[in-house]
Description:
The complex is a heterodimer. Chain A is an alpha+beta fold. Helix content of chain A is 36%, strand content 26%. Chain A is globular, with a radius of gyration of 19 Å. Chain A starts with 6 loop residues before the first strand and ends with a helix. The relative contact order of chain A is 0.12. Chain B is an alpha+beta fold. Helix content of chain B is 29%, strand content 24%. In chain B, a hairpin with a 5-residue loop joins strand 19 (466-472) and strand 20. Chain B starts with 19 loop residues before the first helix and ends with a helix. The mean pLDDT of chain B is 96.
Amino acid sequence: MFPASFGYFAARSLEEALELLTKHGEGAKLLAGGHSLIPAMKLRLASPRYLIDLGQVPGLSGVRVDGDSLAIGALTVHADVASSDLVRQRLPGLAEAAAVIGDVQVRNRGTIGGSVAHADPAADFPVILTALAASFVLVSPAGKRTVAAEKFFIDFFTTALAPNEVLTEIRVPLPPAGAGTAYAKLGHPASGYVVVSAGALVVRQPSGRCASARVAIGGLGSVPIRATATETALQGQPLNPEVIAAAAAKAAEGTDPDGDLYASADYKRHMAAVYARRAIEKASERASKKVKTRMEI
Amino acid sequence: MTTEHTGTGLIGASIRRVEDPVLVTGKGCFVDDVQLPGMLHLAVLRSLHPHAKIISIDTSAARAMAGVEAVLTGDDISLNIPSPPMVSGQKIPPHPVLARGAVHAAGVPVAAVVAQSRAIAQDAADAIEVEYESLPSVVNAEKALEPGAPLAREELDSNVCYIATKKGGDVDKAFAEAEHIVRMHIASPRQVAMPIEPRGAVAKPEPMGQGLTVWLSTQSPHRVRADLATALGFPEHKIRVIAPDVGGGFGSKGPLYREYVLASYLALKLGRPVKWTATRSEDFVTMIQGRDQAMTSELALKRDGTMLGLKVRVVANLGAYLCSNTAGPPQRMMAMAPGCYQIRNVHVEVAAVFTNTVSTGPYRGAGRPESVLNIERLVDKAARDLGIDRLEIRRKNFIRPEQFPYRTAVGVEYDSGDYEKSLAEALRLSKYDDLIRYRDEARTRGELVGVGISTFVEPSGGAGFESGTVRVERTGEITVLTGSSSHGQGHETSFAQVVADKMRVSMDHVAIRHGDTLAIQQGVGTFGSRSMVMGGGAMTIAIQRVVEKGRRIAAHLVEAAPEDLVQADGGFAVAGVPDRQVTWRQIAAAAHGGKVPSGMEPGLQETAFFDPRREAWGFGAHVCLVRIDRETGKPTIEKLVLVDDCGVIINPMIVEGQIHGGVAQGLGEALREQMVFGDDGQALTGTLMNYAVMRADDMPPIVLGETVTPNPFSPLGVKGVGEAGTNGAPPAVANAVMDALAPLGIDHIDMPYTAPKLWEAIRQAEARAKPPA
C-alpha cells in the first residue's frame, strides 16, 4: 500500500525541528523510527501533510546515568535499550520489556520515544515506565518541562505532549539498593501486542519484607493502570509466594476492560492477576539476589 | 552442482533443491518483477459494505487526475468470472468482475482505475465516491439456512446453492440395529491461505489485437487461460499465460480472479501492458478461503465398537460468489467421509450455502481436513462412550490390507493401504505407552495433559489428466515439459530425479520446464497433492516411450537386435558386452540426423497424457501429546509424531518439507487461525495483526516417520503427500486437547484452541463441578 502524498523535512537540529513543528502545526507529525506511523500511513489511517524526521537530530539517542536517574534519549532504538549494560544491570525489567516488543526488525528501528509518544494502549514501554515511575522531558520553543508517566498518558493514543513539543528524553529513577524490576507479558498471537502485561518494581528490606512496590498493568484500559490494591497488599509483608499471589489477585481491582475478539474482559482480568504475580515474583527474586551480592561483598 | 547425482538410485535420494540458490539469493522472477515498456498500473476500489445496493458512483474526480488513463465501473464492463456447475442443478448467480447494481461481500471490486503509476492509481481509486444503500447480511452458513434469514444474494429465493448426497448400504437399518449412537456437531474454522507472494497479474496485448500474454501468479496456467478466454470472449489459442516463479498458493491461486480479467480487458482496450499486484489486505478479502464446514454427525455402533453406519449433514459456507472451484471442498468431504474404516452404511448430505463473506474454495486439504476431523472426533467419542480403548476401536474397524482395492460405501475405490502398520509405527516412534503413563501421572497431580491420535486417508491426484513431454535434444541433454507447474514444491528437483533415474543420466542434463502455455502442451496444474502422482505419472510414461525409441535407434546404430540393448549409465549397452555403449548424445544425433531405422519417425520426443481414472490414497497415523496450563488455558504441544505413507518416495527431504508445511498450517487451524466476520459481515481478522498465522517460532518439535505401501496404479508407485499435515495433525491435536480436558467432563470444543477459549471452558467446567454453595 502507498501512503497519501506528504511533505518531508529532515531536521538537522532540535531547534529546526521545533521551528518546523511550530510552522506546520497540527498538519505535521514527527517521525522517529516510523514503526507505528509509517504502517498507519500506508493503510491511510494517518495522512499527515508533513513529516518532520528527527533521525538526523544529534544527541537524542543513548543511555547514560544522570544523577539518580537513567537518562535514555528518545531516539534510542528498542534493541539498544534491551542490550544496554546499564539498563540490564540497573533496570532489568526495562530491558525485558524492550526485548519483547514486536520483532527483530521493529526493535532495530523503533524508538523508545516514538513508542511513548504514540501511546498505543497495547504497547510495552508505557507499562514498564509507569511501574518504574519514569518521567518524560518535553521541549518546546518556550522551554523544557518534565512530566511523570502517570500524568503523561491520558487516553488511547493521547498524551500530555502539546502540538509544539518534542519528547527528547526518558528519565527513569535508579532504584535503591535491594530493589528488583521485572516485566511479564501476554502477547497477542498475531500482532505480538500486549493483551495483558505487568511491570513491577519491588523494594525489599533486608528482612525479606516488602518495603514498597509499584505495579503497573497494561491491557486493562486506555492507559497503563497502577495496581494500587496490589501494591498496598505487598507493603510491609514478607515476599513469599502466598503473599505475592494474594496481592497479585487484586491487580485488576477497579478496572473495567473491554473484551475483544481474542480475549474476554474476564480473561484479561484473570491474566492481569497471573502476569502481575509473575512480574512481582521475578522482581522480588531479583531484589533478593541484589541483597545477597552486596552481602557477599 | 549436482553432477554427482547420476543415474539409478536418484529415486529415493534427498537431493537438495536445485531451485533454491536462485530463490534464496533474491534472483527469482515473480509477477511483480515483470517490468514492460509503457506499462500501466491497475488499482481497484473495493466495497466496504458486505451487502448493499449501489445507488451511484461518482468517478469525475478520479478521471480528472493527472496520470489517470482509464476508470471503469460496472456500467462500463459486463464481464463475469465463469463458474461452471460442479453439481447438477446448482444455482450460479453472476460473479461480475466489477459490481453491477449491488455488492454481496466486503472487498468486491466496484471500480477499476488504470494510471501511470501505482500510487496515482491508488489515489484516484480513493477519490471515487460511491453511494450505497445497506442491505441485511448473513455470514454464518447454518444461520443462513434458518427461516427468515437475510438473503445473501437477493436475486435468489434462498441461500442454498445446492444440496448433494452420497450414500451406500442401508443406513436406516444400521441405525435401527445400533447398540450405541454417537452424535456430534463439529465446525471447522474458516482459514486463510497465506502464500508469501500475494496474487498478481501483468497483461500485455500483442500488436493488432493478435494476442494477449498474461503473467499470473497461478497454480494452473492452462485452466486459468481457458477461464480467462471464456471471461473475455477472447480466443484461448491467442492467449499465452505464463506463471513465472510463484511464491506459494495452497489452493488459493487455483482459480481465475476478477482482477486478472480487469487487467487483461484494460490492456486490450488501452493497447498497453497493465500490472496489478494485490496487497495482503486485498488477498484477505478477495482470495478464496478454506474450511468453514459445519458437520452434524451420527455414528452407529455395536457395543463392542463395530461401526455400523454413519450419517453426516454438512453445511458448507461458499461465500457470496462462486469461483471455478468453490464447490469442490464439500464434494471431497463427502467422498472420504468413512475415512479408513469399514463402514458399510453411509449417508452424507451437503447443503452448500451462500453468505455475505469471502468466497471459499480449496485450501490445502480442501475438504479432507473437515472429513478427517469429523470421523476422528466421532471415533474418539465412541471409544470414550463405550469404554473401549481408542486404539482397539480403530484397529477393529480398519480396512484390512487384504481388502484392497477397497470400494467404500460412498462408491470410491482405495488402491492400497496398511493402516495398522502406520498406526503401529506411530505408536512405536511416540513411545505411546510412555505417553499414556506420563499423562496419567500428570492427572494425579491435577495437571491437564492429553494424548490424541488420528488415523486417516489422504486422497491425492485426480482432477482429470496431467501431461508430460520428454525430449532428448540434439546434443543429448533432456528437456521435460510438464503441465504440473510448480509454485514452491520443488518440481525442478524431484521431476529431474525421476527422469535422470529412469534414463540413467546426470540430473545436470535434465531441465524441467513448466508454467508457460506457449511452451507446454495442455496441462492441469499443481494442487490436490497431485504433482508426482499425475505429472510424475505422465512423465514416466513419456520416458518409457523415449527409452524404447532410443533403444531401437541404439540397436540400429550398433547393428544389434533392440532386445539385446540394455540401459546403462548415459544411454545403452549391448547385453553382455558392457563396453559396447551407445550414448544419448549419439542416439539423439542419429534421431535428428536421418539415421533412424527405416519406417521410424525422426526426432526423439514423446508426450503422454495420463489419467489413471482413480485417485491415490495415501494414509497415516499422527500422535499428539498436549499440556494445557490450567491458569492461562494455553495449550502446549509437547510431542507430535507424524507417520505418513505416500507410497514410493522420490525425494525424502522434499516429502519432509511438505509434511512440515502442512503440519504448520494444520496446527494453525488447531491452535490459532480463524477468519472471523462480525454479524454485520465485516471481516474482523482481515490483517496479520489479528489473524494469527503460524510462524516458525510457534512450531513445536515434530518427529516424522514413514511406511511405504506402493501404489499399484501409479507407474512410479507414488501417492501424494502435500496435504497429509493439514489432514492428520488437527484431529490428533483435537483428540489430545479433549483427552486432556476429559477429567473435567468436557466433551467437545471446536478448533482453534486458543488459550482464552480453553480457559473459559475450564472455568465453566470447574464451576459446574463445584457443589452448590
